[in-house]
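Note to self: keep these together.
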Amino acid sequence: MKIDFKTLRADFPLLKQTNRGKPLVYLDNSATNQKPRCVIDAISHYYTHDNANIHRGVYELSERATREYEKTRVTIKSFINAKHAHEIVFVRGATEGINLVAQSYGRTHFKVLDEIMISTMEHHSNIVPWQMLADQVGANLRIIPITDDGEIDMDAYQKLFTERTKMVAIAHASNALGTVNPIKEMIRIAHTHDVPVLVDGAQAFPHMPVDVQDLDCDFYVFSSHKAYGPTGIGVLYGKEKLLESMPPYQGGGDMIESVTFAKTTYNKVPFRFEAGTPDIAGVIGFGVALAYLKNIGMDNIAAHEQELLNYATQKLSAIPELKIIGVAKNKVGVISFVLKDVHPHDIGTVLDAHGIAIRAGHHCAMPVMERFQLPATVRASFGLYNNTADIDALVTGLQEVQRIFK
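Structure:
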């Protein structure tokens, strides 16, 4: 089915506004993206018609809220082709999903001198939780290097495995470089060593089809707000046998079967990991966002964003003294770059004056900046509502940056 992406832009109310008196050009989708009207309406509908706590009420409002909440779990199971709906755990975001695995699975299964493998390109959210765990249990981090193009050094990766390797935690796609890693092959290699793999899918899930059974990953995490849904909601997918081996991450209501002062018994998976009242409206809104994406088609979104990436790469490469950082063969719609003698923060400020929203900084990926010996980069990242006119505006804005700083 042919999708007219130009008409889809009208589904996003925020994009109709101006910024600094100029038409808004939003190119910070790797940080978060905008929400379609259907998601906003779904959240409003919940609070105006169905607001009640879930799982515990025996009245109609609670039953409706529970039904819509759990419907999203089934939607996600289908969306990523998980084997069971109970392999879907709701968390506050990809970050909490990684922390949950580190603290629950890691503290149960890791010991002194065990090794956790991560890469140079990881977001801080896939570094710091493992550092914290390593400090707690006496484990060590092993770092997979990346090439000058911003790709995983696969030869080095294979050589890093030892009998002490207990986990690989790797980004599906880099938020700072756009690199799409060869996840399926990396998982296959890890499994030959009987090592489980956690995939940080925050930057990949909104931009391409994801099939967790085909990947054979052991854990996969992603966030709603990067997939056109509300903030404060995310998903941890875990294989059933692994989730069953993990103790609760937090204690409280709804994660228990029974409580006495002598002993508490815990609820079944996934509910043992979902303590307390969740963001019910957010989960419902996320379900609507996924239905919206499914209607467009993830293959169509991937193709559209690849066209934008190719166009932007061509246009930016033609700008004198601009250097793109991260030129992997396989990328999502992310371009990071530097401009000679102009700090990225200054570039961001000038572009903002022209209505263009980009990201400037280390992108919560300071080891990447260290790898390329840079303090920061400018990052433009694309979503399904972007078009070539947005990229043309970015190029015009960068030409104005050069004029000002020369």
